[in-house]
Recover the amino acids of this structure.
């Protein structure tokens, strides 16, 4: 008997002696990561050269400011005040004194160097892990000097990707409808700008009303709705050449266009005799295919990123709701069953979510849900807002919001707003004029 | 013969009656079912979080300090020990002193009352409805003392012997500290297996001697970018947090610690 107890004791003892305590860490904070963006160092000769070409006093500092603003705008990073920096940019780029950066609570540090080489702008940058005291990334770019803002965006994308694990969205552009004039007599022009609001350009003159511009995944083309012989029609516009054309030869009005993920097709609504259905058109051979065939109004189609499914809204149940079907129009399933009306569904580039606009009890909401309609989350609520468009990484939504007019019809404005998936980082995107119907491009440097 | 049969019959009958009377199913009483009490299942970690623990710790420390003060003020009982003779005095004095000592020893009530006064005084001073947590703690210490007297095994010793890991409040304190330091990389996919296990070697003060990622090979594999990002963020959290908030006792138990960082719950939202 004693022997048996002894044996059990021998079996159990080592287990106990070597048992390692495990603690599960399943929560963390979502506070922005403190980052120090040191001004990029620049030698005197290069500084003078860039000053002549770009009319900027110190291009190194200017690029650092672009990076800093991008990081701040993302809501995930907290760029620290430069006044607190103890180390000079040129020395910090060679070997940062991590104790100094640790002292100001920086967890990551960006340093760099700008040089003028063969009439070109060469930028080196390094990302440092301050707490681990090691270099995380080092890259160099060479480009024409006028591209200096894009260099700032590309650096931000690389830093963002290295620190969050997700591709960035800073080297991108936004196309939107620029609006001017009274509400009853608005002039609407197509406009394009960098995602941070700089380099704004107008693409149309404003003679015709334009609506719902959408970027092609290739970035060369834009599809939008404009009027032709007093009928709304879907157009194609090449941003580089300025050429535009009407899509297809439809006898009625076409609207709500969007590109397929491979950029080879356009999906849109075609309306005739009060009934609208969804069609696709192949841009190479111009073959048109009917996708839905239902007496109700089917509109706002959007492809899933793999091209296998289409989401759209329809009033076939009596109220406007969101549906998902196969790309050939089969297997139509209703996915929204909540109170209110649902519209403008847009499939996330990551494929996991669908963004939508919801109208309930006189208020407009922008929200997201899983592709089967579960997990609905309303991110923002307002008097009037709609048309969400995803950032290329599927992390941020841009949409537009209109304000109420007073009794005299004054005070109306339409502005672009962005919000991230957490629903916290809601910000207005600065535009020169009033703006609506934004569409986010994919990354330019892909 | 007949008489014996009668006696036997009588006794057997008695036996049968007694057995029958005492059988449980015969004396069955209706079961009084207690009213149904609804129970809400809660996560205990939410209830034993660090702010409370810190607060309680402070209160306990304050109480202990007060106790110390009281003991020093109420020192007289120690006089008893001082009166013990160190050297052998002349016979007469010896007898007197022994008598005195005997007197005091034979009159334990005096000492007892003195002690009681102290405890009552303490109670009067210490009882504060706001410091219930501290009082509970004190009662625990007192009960520990009694068990020591009786069994010579204290609660503290029990803990050291039996509990293989950290107690709930110790674990919560550590978790809460790391929760605050860990900036979760928000871009990670929530549907992938991204569990980062880090083994730590700690000093008694909670600072880190060595940290080791257990699946280190995964860090540099192609296509494991997300894992690398998560692992680096976890390492940053540990470095930012050190010294870790570890228990003051049982160093041997937690000198090696494994932290499992799993962000899925947070990322899924």
């Amino acid at each position: 008997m004693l022997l048996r107890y002894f044996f059990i004791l021998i079996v159990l003892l080592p287990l106990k002696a070597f048992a390692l305590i495990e603690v599960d860490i399943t929560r963390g904070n979502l506070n922005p990561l403190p980052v120090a963006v040191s001004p990029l160092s620049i030698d005197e000769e290069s500084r003078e050269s860039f000053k002549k070409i770009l009319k900027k006093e110190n291009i190194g500092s200017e690029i650092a400011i672009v990076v800093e603003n991008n990081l701040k705008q993302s809501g995930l990073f907290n760029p620290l005040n430069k006044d607190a920096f103890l180390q000079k940019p040129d020395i910090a780029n060679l070997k940062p004194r991590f104790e100094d950066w640790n002292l100001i609570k920086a967890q990551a540090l960006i340093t760099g160097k700008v040089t003028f080489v063969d009439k070109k702008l060469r930028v080196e940058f390094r990302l440092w892990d301050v707490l681990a005291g090691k270099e995380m990334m080092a890259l160099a770019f060479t480009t024409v000097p006028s591209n200096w803002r894009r260099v700032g965006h590309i650096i931000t994308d690389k830093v963002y990707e290295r620190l969050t694990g997700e591709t960035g969205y800073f080297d991108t552009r936004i196309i939107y409808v620029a609006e001017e004039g009274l509400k009853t007599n608005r002039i609407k022009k197509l406009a394009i700008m960098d995602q941070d609001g700089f380099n704004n350009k107008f693409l149309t003159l404003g003679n015709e009303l334009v609506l719902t511009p959408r970027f092609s995944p290739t970035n060369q083309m834009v599809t939008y709705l404009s009027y032709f012989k007093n009928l709304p029609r879907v157009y194609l516009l090449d941003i580089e050449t300025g050429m535009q054309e009407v899509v297809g030869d439809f006898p009625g009005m076409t609207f709500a266009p969007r590109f397929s993920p491979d950029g080879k097709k356009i999906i849109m609504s075609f309306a005739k005799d009060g009934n609208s259905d969804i069609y696709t058109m192949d841009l190479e051979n111009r073959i048109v295919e009917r996708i839905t065939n239902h007496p109700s109004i089917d509109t706002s189609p959007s492809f899933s990123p793999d091209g296998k499914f289409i989401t759209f809204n329809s009033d076939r149940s009596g109220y406007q709701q969101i549906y998902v079907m196969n790309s050939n129009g089969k297997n139509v399933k209703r996915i929204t069953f909540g109170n209110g009306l649902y519209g403008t569904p847009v499939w996330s580039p990551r494929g996991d979510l669908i963004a939508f606009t919801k109208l309930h009890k006189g208020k407009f909401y922008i929200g997201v849900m899983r592709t089967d309609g579960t997990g609905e989350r309303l991110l923002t609520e307002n008097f009037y807002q709609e048309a969400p468009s995803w950032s290329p990484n599927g992390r941020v939504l841009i949409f537009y919001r209109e304000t109420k007019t007073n009794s005299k019809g004054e005070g109306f404005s339409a502005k672009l707003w962005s919000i991230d998936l957490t629903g916290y980082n809601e910000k207005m995107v600065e535009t020169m004029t009033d703006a609506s119907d934004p569409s986010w491009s994919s990354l330019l440097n892909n | 013969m007949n008489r014996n049969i009668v006696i036997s019959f009588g006794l057997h009958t008695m036996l049968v009656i007694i057995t029958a009377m005492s059988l449980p199913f015969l004396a069955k009483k209706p079961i009084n079912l207690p009213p149904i009490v609804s129970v809400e299942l809660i996560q205990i970690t939410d209830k034993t979080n660090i702010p409370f623990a810190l607060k309680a710790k402070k209160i306990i420390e304050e109480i202990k300090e007060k106790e110390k003060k009281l003991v020093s003020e109420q020192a007289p009982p120690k006089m008893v020990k001082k009166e013990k003779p160190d050297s052998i005095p002349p016979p007469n004095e010896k007898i007197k002193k022994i008598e005195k000592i005997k007197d005091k020893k034979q009159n334990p009530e005096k000492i007892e009352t003195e002690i009681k006064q102290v405890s009552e005084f303490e109670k009067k001073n210490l009882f504060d409805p706001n410091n219930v947590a501290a009082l509970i703690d004190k009662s625990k210490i007192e009960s520990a003392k009694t068990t020591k007297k009786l069994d010579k095994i204290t609660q503290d010793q029990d803990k050291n012997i039996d509990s293989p890991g950290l107690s709930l409040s110790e674990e919560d304190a550590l978790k809460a500290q790391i929760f605050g330091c860990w900036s979760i990389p928000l871009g990670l996919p929530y549907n992938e297996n991204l569990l980062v296990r880090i083994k730590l070697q700690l000093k008694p003060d909670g600072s880190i001697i060595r940290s080791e990622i257990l699946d280190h090979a995964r860090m540099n594999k192609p296509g494991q970018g997300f894992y690398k990002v998560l692992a680096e963020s976890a390492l940053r959290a540990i470095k930012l947090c050190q010294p870790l908030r570890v228990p003051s006792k049982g160093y041997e138990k937690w000198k090696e610690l494994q932290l499992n960082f799993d962000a899925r719950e947070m990322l899924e939202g």
User: Anything to note?
Assistant: The CA atoms of residues 97 and 103 of chain B lie 9 Å apart. Chain B has two domains: 52-162, 168-268.
